[in-house]
Amino acid sequence: MEKLKNYIYGEWVEGTGNGMPLYNAVTGEQVAVSDTEGLNFEQALDYGRTVGYKNLSSMTFYDRGEMLKKVALYLLERKKKYYELSYKTGATHADSWVDIEGGFGTFFTYSGLAKRMLPNTPFWVDGETQKISANGTFLGTHILTPSEGVSIQINAYNFPVWGMLEKLSTSLLAGVPSIVKPSPYGSYLTNAVFQDMIESGVLPEGALQLVCGEPGNILDYVQDGDSVLFTGSANTGRKLKSMPSIAGNAVRFNMEADSLNCSILGLDAKPGTPEFDLFIKEVRTEMTTKAGQKCTAIRRIIVPEHLIGDVQNALSKALDQTKIGNPLSRETRMGSLVGKQQYDEVVRKVNILKSETELVYDGKHELIDADYDNGAFMSPKLFLNDKPFEKNISHDVEAFGPVSTLMPYKDAEEAAALAKRGKGSLVGSIISHDEKFIAETSWKMASQHGRIFVLNRDNAKESTGHGSPLPTLMHGGPGRAGGGEEMGGLNGLHFFLQKTAIQGSPDVLTAITKVYQQGAEKKYADKHPFQKYFEDVEVGDSLETAGRTVTDADIVNFSNVSWDHFYAHTDATSLTGTIFDKTVAHGYFILSAAAGLFVSGKKGPVIANYGLENCSFFKPVYAGDTITVYLTAKEKINRGVKGRNIPSGVVKWLVEVVNQREEVVCVATILTLVAKHSPFIDLNVKNVQKILGGLTETTSLNWGKMSPQQMIEHLEHGVLVSLGEPEADKCFTPEEQLEKWQDSLYNHRKMPKDFPAPFLAEDETLLELKHKNLEAAKQSFLDNLKRFSVYYKENSQAEHMNFVFGKLNKEMWELMHKKHFTHHFEQFGLI
């Protein structure tokens, strides 16, 4: 039987013991063996702290975000084999989708957050700068850097893929190397995904290690700077947290434990209402998804006392319709528990619940293409606790399977009180259309819940469900739920980051943070900052504008244009008792006038105004005052661009407006989209002619089989096609892929060297030569390039077919030619 290998200190290592056999939860057949005996855990931790930390922490947040995306794309292409393994854990296709593609989705989400919101530096400036001296020569701020250590991540058996990727999304993005320790059950699936993550070649050396099997004494070797993330039972978590190596050192510990989550049916949600039907559907889903093996599953069903019978009947009928059996059958809606050991544990807990509460539904015991002897199957079980304020087992004991308990309440006060008797939950839901009931109940139960999910007819179509943690929202909960926090958007990174206060002069803080601080030295140059590409803009680049004297006519005209006739701008007789001496210029006029002073009218790399932040007005500006603007590049944010957008970054500019007395009247931060340098040549005919001057009949190729003249005539043919001479009659790219191909014209990725033309047979030559020699071919090519420029000036709306990219307009043809010319000029070493 195959023994799962562990990946430590950069190599795949097999354990030296007999290991633990792992079984198919559906058929009982052995799948693999997990074994960690003989592994040097101390060496593994040291390898992560040294090699892994050095490589990951030196990357920028932006680059780590790009890394997550590349890994997720690599895994997505191989998802079919993960599903085949997931079925062996007892998971249905729907269960597997949540685990597998939900995990990939978490990587994609964090990649997007990083590329939109995090800096292209290995550190992260957190919060605003604090002015801590009267004259502003002494400032303070905070930076976040990767915690210097390794993170050990101990995961539960219910989500072999998502459980790993959910934790790695934040640790890898934060720059902290990790050792993943999945539960042995289902670890063959974790192992397969992990192998592909390593095989992708995207992750730096030492970033990840994998221990498949028993954890042994790995936690004995944690030390200051390390972290432990644990998902599992609260009892085990508390034991780990109290270990001397963890409690006695500065080791960060995060626990996400199972919890007795509840769902509350509102007093208004009577049978026949949309909310009643939604409630039944939601409870059934949470009882049966993953066979109830979810830390967010509904364990306590809190229902108005007069509706207990209605809910019991409706839920029993709904559960009757849930077919149980082999996940490979299309009819199956609920699979098995992950194994016989877990089945025995759930039965033990069910018997404890029976000691105090009544089992009112035990499900149908029919299985599809499976049997109870070999598989770990269990029918859904519904209990009734008729006195939930007296009988406490329902609030204390969790059967981690398709098991839940009904309990009655009288009013919102009681509903919230019952919700809190779980002593800390990951999630509680309220299903109601009564906003007053929802508001009163939610804030009263919030202190004992990590998330509150409200469902009704208004959001049902787009709701993600009671049991679905989302990457952008915190996952965790107080008390029994572990007191930990995971994900939550960028907040999820803070667990892995060290926050450090930085104090110094404006120049020093600018140098450290790479963010311009008011009062730091400005860098003036003849070139307008808006004429610089994103890569060329430097923090501190500045412009001092000419002055503009504000007139009464400006104030009147702005009032008429904006329709802002606020009395302070228009009625001098109403100013008694105000802060104004006379009619004052609008704040937004000052900002608009400032923009008029600092923008460059000439077309350049600045694409668009992207936003405005932190605008403040400090002193009134009256007619007769003269304003001047100081514009300074404050911060640069690299930006991922999708679709048909020009590759660009965001530059934040500090705008300081002063009056004739050099008093600051307005400060704002404006954001602009600034284009990045294109790696492709410009289509300027003189530029192309100069490049072609280096091409001769003897010029050698870097790749491919073309002769120099064939290459020039090939490019000329492309230009003629873009003029409709001849009009291409067919595009060889399938329709469903065409948009993706056209979008690719806008990015800065070069054409692949080995790109096979889809319209040519392998042995077919490109074109028969039509010019007498290379020089004649060059001249004809340049002549047609001139024609291309004139043609699209005269026919700006023209479109012509391309064999690969479909019908293209002027902009697309220009982009295509730039990429195409560059590709072939590099082929012959001309650029």
Automatic annotation (TrEMBL):
Keywords annotated in UniProt: Oxidoreductase
Record flagged with keyword tRNA processing: no
Domain Aldehyde dehydrogenase: 12-499
One Pfam family from the record: MaoC_dehydratas
InterPro entries: Ald_DH/histidinol_DH, Ald_DH_C, Ald_DH_N, Aldehyde_DH_dom, HotDog_dom_sf, MaoC-like_dom, PaaN-DH
MaoC-like domain residues: 539-639
The keyword Chloroplast belongs to this UniProt entry's keyword annotation: no
Segments for region (Disordered): 460-484
Xref: PANTHER family: ALDEHYDE DEHYDROGENASE B-RELATED (PTHR43111:SF1)
Name under which the protein is recorded: Phenylacetic acid degradation bifunctional protein PaaZ
Taxonomic source organism: Chryseobacterium pyrolae
